[in-house]
Amino acid sequence: MLQQLLPFYFMKLSDKENSVDVIYVDNHLLVLNKPVDLLTQPTNISSDSLETRAKDWIKKRYKKPGRVFLECIHRLDKPVSGMVVFARTSKALSRLQKQMREKTIAKYYLALVEGTFSKEKGEMKHTIAHSTLKAKLSASGKSAFLEYKVKKTYENLSLVEICLHTGRYHQIRVQMSLSKHPVVGDKKYKSRWMLDNGIALHHAKMELEHPVTKEKMLFTSNAPFEASIEQYLFQTNARKK
Questions:
Q1: Catalytic residue among 26, 77, 186, 196
Q2: d(CA 65, CA 203)
Q3: Alpha carbon distance 175, 162 (integer Å)
């Protein structure tokens, strides 16, 4: 089957250096929207990352000349978009990491995947292992568990909400592929669709306890491909008429 091109123009990176999309900020937390094709943290190969841009933003906004403390409590793969939570103090970091270990933080993703589902909701359980920049099914690997709910179906594509119960390497991407529903644009895991940038996977919702005030907090971020897929299908149908 020929690969198909879905022009997700919304996914292209901003040309503005060090730009950040702030969802929430206080003295203890910073929640940002990560665009696709940007690292969460810098590496030896690339210094440009969401963390680097966030530190620059804090320096400018709060006029901090010296070192900025900022640590992410979770990461997103480079081709994935959505929310990333940073701790602005060591106390906040320690308490948020404790919530992560105790699995009291709820993380929800939206994914546009290939194919349709026979059930509106369900769960996926696999044993997977990290192997040379990919994850794969392995009897000696670690258990991976997620729940999914189909939000909408578009002909041969489905929009699903995913709740992660474990945090394995490339977990959503490999489990969806193993279940014959690869994430759109994820060529590494056998998607037949191509995108201009990234893959159609977005960290859309997160529930946690504020590390200092103890307030229950809910952060949300709109998945850009929800609007884009409607536009694409409208244009496709218009061309068929």
A1: 77
A2: 32
A3: 11
Q: Which pLDDT belongs to residue 195?
A: 82
Encoded tokens for 157: 């594509």
Q: What's the N-to-C CA distance of the chain in angstroms?
A: 24
> What is the rounded CA–CA span in Å between residue 197 and residue 59?
29
Paired strand residues for 220: 205
Distance, in Å, from the CA atom of 8 to the CA atom of 195, rounded to the nearest integer, reads: 6
Task: Select the CATH number that applies to the domain covering 13-240 from these four: 3.40.630.30, 3.40.50.300, 3.30.300.130, 3.30.2350.10.
Answer: 3.30.2350.10
Q: Is 196 a known active-site residue?
A: no
**pLDDT more than 70, % of the chain:** 86
Token reading at 43:
């590496």
Asked whether 191 and 137 are in contact (CB, 8 A), the reply is no
Mention every residue, 6+ apart, whose C-beta is less than 8 A from residue 225: 8, 10, 110, 112, 184, 200, 202
Q: Which residue has the higher pLDDT, 239 or 97?
A: 97
Whole-number pLDDT of residue 40: 96
The domain segmentation of the chain, as residue ranges, is 13-240
Question: Of all helices (H) and strands (E), which one includes residue 176?
Answer: helix 171-178
Q: What is the pLDDT of residues 5-23, one digit of tens each?
A: 454 433 443 434 457 999 9
